[in-house]
Amino acid sequence: YSGFAMILSLHRQNKMTGIGEQFQYILRDETIHLNFGIDLINGIKEENPELWSPDFQLYITDKVREAVELEIRYAEDCLPKGILGLTAPMFREYTQYIADRRLERIGLKTQYQSKNPFPWMSETIDLGKEKNFFETRVTEYQSSSTLTW
């Protein structure tokens, strides 16, 4: 998530606009994958509650914490001194915030209680397809029910 926020932050500042647009496409796809994974986990929990043991929950939480630390190190390597208003501590906070949201969605306790330093990322992820045709390209999929053949 740090990589998306870094590039999309630059895109918001009208820097690296081409790659920023490509990252919007990728983020759209990754959001679909994320939601599928969360639905899958929650479905498995519901159908097989015996699998959702305290030990397994602790294992998942530990893996999330490990992933957060790796993501934070990535941000620190990318931004050792900060650039264009972005700093590694901002990405630490963001990564922890995102991890807590993911844990919540699968029914686990939050670990960090961090705030979102990039609220615009939520808007970027949730943007609909309505964009000015002459200003940009739409990065949302069109559902088959709205296609004209």
Descriptive key words:
5 helices; globular; 149 residues; 62% helix; mainly alpha; Ribonucleotide Reductase, subunit A
Quote the average pLDDT: 86
Q: Helix count?
A: 5
Q: Supply Rg.
A: 18 Å
CATH architecture: Orthogonal Bundle
- In CATH, what is the homologous superfamily? Ribonucleotide Reductase, subunit A
The structure class reads: mainly alpha
Q: Helical percent range?
A: 55-70%
| Integer tally of domains | 1
Beta-strand segment tally: 0
**Share in β-strands:** under 5%
Global shape: globular
Give the termini separation. Answer: 37 Å
Helix and strand pattern? HHHHH
Your description of this structure?
With 149 residues, the protein is mostly helical. It has a single domain (2-127), classed as Ribonucleotide Reductase, subunit A (Orthogonal Bundle), CATH 1.10.620. The chain is built from 5 helices and no strands. Helix 1 (2-12) packs antiparallel against helix 2 (17-47). The protein is globular, with a radius of gyration of 18 Å. The termini are far apart.
